[in-house]
Specification:
Length: 112
């Protein structure tokens, strides 16, 4: 099997990137490895063709993404709740991340 290199560029809020970096450091993995693993485990199987991407399949995919975001939110809330009182900036950043994750989950749930 040949390796294909693809570059992906996307914009993310800086606090989300900071939280992602922290999670990667805690898991002792690189951000590239984490993204690569996500892309491998969440890509459609080879049998799926664009014609078969029906609404039920899209809905199933969105539900999987919602579940993933809920897991991330749970971890972020746990992180936020364990921050000592002296680190108010960190707490505020984690709280903002939690709020944005909740918004994203809400938007996806409303869409499907």
């Amino acid at each position: 099997m040949a390796n294909i290199t693809t570059q992906i560029k996307f914009t993310i809020e800086s606090d989300i990137v900071t939280a992602f970096k922290a999670r990667c450091l805690a898991a002792d993995t690189s951000m590239t490895s984490a993204i690569r693993q996500f892309m491998i485990t969440h890509r459609p199987s080879r049998g799926v063709k664009p014609k078969t991407l029906t609404r039920p399949l899209r809905k199933k995919t969105v539900i999987e993404i919602i579940d993933l975001l809920k897991n991330i939110l749970e971890l972020e809330e746990e992180y936020r709740d364990n921050i000592p009182e002296v680190f108010t900036q960190r707490y505020d950043a984690a709280d903002l991340s939690c709020g944005r994750l909740e918004e994203a989950i809400g938007c996806l749930e409303d869409a499907y």
